[in-house]
Each structure stands twice: as C-alpha cells, then as structure tokens.
Amino acid sequence: MGFRFQKRIPIFPGIYVNLSKSGISLSLGGHGASVNVGSERRTINFGIPGTGMSYRMPISTGIIGAVLLAALIIAVVYAVKPDLIKPVLHMWQPRLFPN
C-alpha cells in the first residue's frame, strides 16, 4: 500500500476544495451526489448516505457545464425566493438548509 494524503476544505455550503497528493480539485454537492473537477479527472458520484456504497463515473465537460448552470439557477432562485426551493434543499442537506 502507498501513502495517501487528502484534505477537504469547505468554501461555501456544498462547495469544497480538495487537496491530495495527486493535486487540487473542486467538489460541488454533498451526501448522495457530487461532481468533482480536477486538472486530470472529472467525475460524478452517486451514493446512498450512511451505507458506504457509491458509484463514480467520469463525465464530459458539457455535463459539468450543465450541472454548474443548474447549481447557479438554484442559487439565484434561493437568493430571490428561498421558500420555493428550501424544501428540496432540506431533503438533500438537512443540516445546511434547516426548516
């Protein structure tokens, strides 16, 4: 086995900078689903929180753009009318978006 190093630094709720031996990457998402963009790899992760089970697959730049656009739209709607989107965000991240 080789030596591993990994540090996850929160920037905003659901956005993290990841530092590791292989480089720096950015994660968007949280429990259940996230997108990770690094200099060499771009992946999307789906998992069942609390089980340790997950599925990771590589994604294209176009999909990353679509996910980031969707996140931007959700952020704008949340800023303008939080009651409209808060129930959905609460189901996804109850600690970050309390009722």
Please mark out the parts with pLDDT under 50 across 5 or more consecutive residues, or reply none. Answer: none
Q: What's the shape?
A: globular
Strands, count: 6
Cα distance spanning the termini: 45 Å
Count of individual helical segments: 2
* Spatial strand arrangement across the major sheet: 1-2-3-4-5-6
How does this model look, in words?
This protein has helices spanning 61-80, 82-92, and strands at residues 6-12, 15-20, 23-30, 33-38, 42-48, 53-58. The chain is of the alpha+beta class and 99 residues long. It has one domain. Strands 1-2-3-4-5-6 form a six-stranded antiparallel sheet, with helices on one face. The longest helix has 20 residues, at 61-80. The chain is globular and about 45 Å long. The mean pLDDT is 81.
What would a concise description of this structure say?
With 99 residues, the chain is an alpha+beta fold.
Annotation keywords:
99 residues; six-stranded antiparallel β-sheet; 6 strands; globular; alpha+beta
Topology:
Elements: E1 6-12, E2 15-20, E3 23-30, E4 33-38, E5 42-48, E6 53-58, H1 61-80, H2 82-92
Antiparallel strand pairs: 1-2, 2-3, 3-4, 4-5, 5-6
